[in-house]
Design a protein that fits this description.
With 191 residues, the chain is mostly helical. It has a domain at 1-67: Tetratricopeptide repeat domain (Serine Threonine Protein Phosphatase 5, Tetratricopeptide repeat). It has helices at residues 3-15, 19-32, 37-49, 53-66, 71-83, 87-100, 105-117, 121-134, 139-151, 155-168, 175-190. The chain is elongated.
């Protein structure tokens, strides 16, 4: 079986939830074509599904060694590192993802969360501002950006972010909560 055939079958096995078989086929693909970065990336996903994070990390590292600008692999690698408490490695991975896809809100959001984890609020806010610029309608981005603003004692910016979100999304499930927070910020600013 050729590498692409093994890969295609492995992807199908992965989609069907047969991850052990998928890993076997992905391994077959990369044995035949060692620079098949997509096979390593997908194999990592199968290892993640099998709750084998070390193997998944190894596959993502191989992926980016072969294709250094593959931002999706950096993001997934960062998520794995963060889930293991390896925040420094997570931050490095998310920064690489952002470098290669600078308008991707998710990558900046993940970077911001990791920086918040270690209480690096100013760089976290910078990353979250970029996420908000790319996707101002994501309530999770809004929530974390406001948290970074609160940590930096910038209630005025938090209020601006909440106002923008509420104006664009008045019927969103979190709009009432955000409206309440905005009211509290205004009361604090007025005192």
């Amino acid at each position: 079986m050729k590498a692409t055939e093994a890969y295609n079958q492995a992807v199908e096995e992965h989609r069907k939830g047969r991850h052990k078989e998928a890993v076997r086929l992905f391994k077959q693909a990369v044995e035949q074509e060692p620079e098949f970065y997509r096979a390593y990336a997908y194999m990592a996903l199968s290892y993640e599904a099998l709750k084998m994070p070390k193997e998944a990390i190894d596959c993502y590292v191989k992926t980016v060694l072969i294709k250094p600008d593959y931002h999706k692999a950096y993001n997934n690698l960062g998520q794995l590192y963060r889930s293991r408490g390896e925040i420094g490695d997570a931050i490095d991975s998310f920064r690489n993802a952002c470098q290669f896809d600078p308008t991707n809100a998710l990558y900046h959001y993940n970077l911001g969360l990791s920086l918040m984890d270690i209480r690096e609020y100013a760089p976290a806010r910078e990353a979250l501002e970029k996420a908000f610029a790319s996707d101002p309608n994501d309530h999770e981005i809004v929530n974390e950006l406001c948290a970074s603003c609160y940590a930096l004692k910038d209630n005025a910016r938090a209020a601006e972010v909440l106002e923008k979100f509420i104006a664009a999304n008045p019927d969103h499930a979190r709009a009432i909560e955000f409206q309440s927070r905005l009211g509290a910020l205004r009361r604090v600013q007025g005192s």
